[in-house]
Amino acid sequence: MLIHTEAMREIPAWAVLQRRLFDTIETAWRQFAERYTEPDGRLRYSGGFEDRDGVDDLYEPFFNWPAFYLLGGSDEVLAAAKHHWSGVTAQLTEAGMLTDQYENGYDWFHQGESLVFFYGLCAADPSDPEFARRAARFADLYTDPTRGNYDAERNIIRAPHNGARGALEGLNPTWQSYGAELVWMEPYGLPLHGLPGIRSWDDLRSPANAEAMGLALQHRAQGDTAVNLAATSLVANRWLYDGDPSASSWISRYVEGWHERARLNGGLIPDNVAPDGVVGGLHDGRWYGGHYGWTWPHGLHSVASGTLIAGLNASLVSGDSSFLDVTRTVLDTVLEHAITAPPAEANFSLSQFWRARYGPGANEPALLVPHRHGTDGWFDFGPMQLEFPLWLWWWTREEQDRTRLQRVLDGMPEAAWDVQPFRDKMESGHDAPWLAYLDGEDPDYPARALSMALGQVARRVAVMEAEHPDPATVHLHYWQRVNPVVTEVLSQLITGTPQTLYNGGLPFSALIYEDLDRGRAGLPQDVAALVTSLAQDRIEVELVNLSATRTRRLLIRASRFGEHRLQQVESHGEDGGDYPGPSTAETSRPGVPVSSSAEVDGAVKVTLLPSHRTRLTLATTRSTQRPHHRAAGAHASTATRSEQGNR
Asked: In which element (H, E) is residue 571 found?
């Protein structure tokens, strides 16, 4: 089809900033790798590991490097990401933390954080046979009951700590005591409620109570917990390679099991299942109290994340969005108990999480929801993470989900709508002004957000220059704090997608691009993209070629894994005119606006002459083909080549 374009007589600032951000990140990640990694890719860390915790901390510094490549980062950043995954994997294996390249066993709140990097690598280069084999091998840890993690009869994952060595006993092989000397855990309060004689943190100052708490934690670390739902991403990632029906069946059955438990609990998902399959069997019949569940340590933050990730995965493999109903109930339940108060005045266990996100808005009245539930009812009030209702709406684009999202947005302080200059390890939190932009209420968001992102890269480079930690004593979170690759704003603007759910979400995307001249994923060099509108079956995007001398060609598709497909494209440009015009003129004569539309079969090719732009309105529909990993160019998978042949 003919794509209408127009010559640019003024270069949009957002496009210049976007390409500058690409260039700045390319320099910064190389500096990070040179300073903090060894030639074989491992991190410069010579300290040890005292317990099961820590695997995630070595993978997390690279979690968004594959995403940067998929947006248009260099071939070198993808090669580096694979190199560091291999180096860190060898490093952790030598430390005794991995078996056959997978974590020995830990909770899925942290496993999910580790695996975002792995899922990103699989999506970035699905033609890599080694990662395909790993994806299948890792998924088998859960779909194959003989591996010790999954009880097929009771449809449960058998322990809160699980992984390559099956279901592990307790929370640590030698952990017996849990006392008040663990001062860094005091903000989260008691890990178990209802133990005789232990009603407050101060009660843990008693050695006998500390011993009782430790023994109870070890004993109750059996059976399934709601956060294990994030394991569905591991299986879905494998399914995206080969469509194995046993993988999709496992996801649906496992998620349905938790949904049935929610139904029997009045709609709200419980957080624990005993080894015999009974909810509350290890918690005196209580539906709350499981590890990383409703009571401790984060409540909503971990439970909603697990249910949402699982709901998205089950919807992906089945096409049934009702799998998201349990997450809807989770969010609606805490919203029913919401209060209004300044976040800074709430005794919220995750208050540090919001000081940067809200900036001065932390002192303004806001909607606060209870994050946890214990023997005294709902407690721990704080702002709801916008990512949860946002991802629900983004996936379905349904009015019911937009209404819930809007309620949360309306409860945010006014300052939260500004582009706050911060970045946390999840690299999210700027969704409110982005949504305002999509709604036509904040036209300056792209330039302000990109400027902020450039500032965050600059700050992290400055920290790298200023701090030189000792590899023997460096904090395990240090590298996360200086990772200079930023993708949140790029994902929003280029693909129309929120930041990936950090605790184990797959790298979904509303739009994907392919550089036709280089035969690879991502935007071509010099090209900037801006999604300006996102609706249920329509996406509007602007494309700009900043090169003054080179024509750029690209392909656009709907969705990362082919859940949706393009069916119609309308392009907007100009016709006539005399660009660039004769040298004797002070300017060129513009043409007249022109638009046209045409049916397409899944993808649209765009050719951008030097210093030209186009605006596209893309009509999308649910695909009738199975979602799958889609490679680009010369590395295209069989499924992708077949899809191209059908056009």
From this structure: strand 564-575
